[in-house]
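Name: Short-chain dehydrogenase
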Amino acid sequence: MNDSAHSLNNSVLGSDALSISKLFNVKGWVIIVTGGGTGLGLCTASALAANGAKVYITGRRLEPLEKAVSEASPKAKEGGGQMIPIQADASTKEGVQKMREVIESKEKWINVLINNHGVSLGHADPNAVEQTPEALSKEMFENESFENWLDGYRINTASYYFTSFAFLPLLAAAKTVGGYAEPGNILNLGSVSGITKTSQKGQFSYNANKAATISLSHQLATEFARRNLNIRVNVICPGYFPSGMNTMQGEYAGGSDESLTYARSKWGIPFGRAGNAVDYAQAIFSLITNQYMTGAELVIDGGWLLEMG
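Structure predicted for Short-chain dehydrogenase:
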């Protein structure tokens, strides 16, 4: 450690910079959460708004966005933040363009872009047939389609590329116009499905496009760093959280001995429960406020990946 770094650390240790309120402070930040009207997107947007951020949530349908804003507004107002809905389909170039035009008309910079929108499409089940080459071939060939594969990749991966570059100028402007020490940053929604070596009962397409999302995030982080843009890019990889993308929402609450056993046997989660809003929000705040972290993938899965591989 050189003298200047040592001096800087002493300065920090003697200040209030290490207090919780400063470590994860997002007051006054301008943040975009795509797919922010439901599920993990709503959890993310609500937590940020409740802690003083101005959060734009986007989605294809206006009704769930308005419902989300209505339900979250009292807590957001109490924390000094707000949530603003924008109806736009982030999975199309036209939708991304609309998002950018609306936000450019209202903001001079953004601090964080959270690419959260995504889809899990139906898939063939290799466990539903006789385990012979002929039966597996028939099931996995005839009951899958190129359209499903391409739609999943378009929504879960390619659209993240377009939103990232569309908002690059506003992210860069956060440093100079916003008065913050660093430019904005990007957080992409990956999944343990993009890391695991198993197909999770046949969801080859989803797992493959989430792996592509993780790769895209690493590439963006690398290219931005090499160009001295100082715009960080990280990816969060959740395991099982109740959402509209899995059946856990209705059949598992967690907490009792029975539900612990159920979570372990049905979902393979060593910790014996699904993730919750607090778990997820803690991870989000850590990733977006740590100005020395880029190109990272954060797994938050209750040990599922360790158990299932």
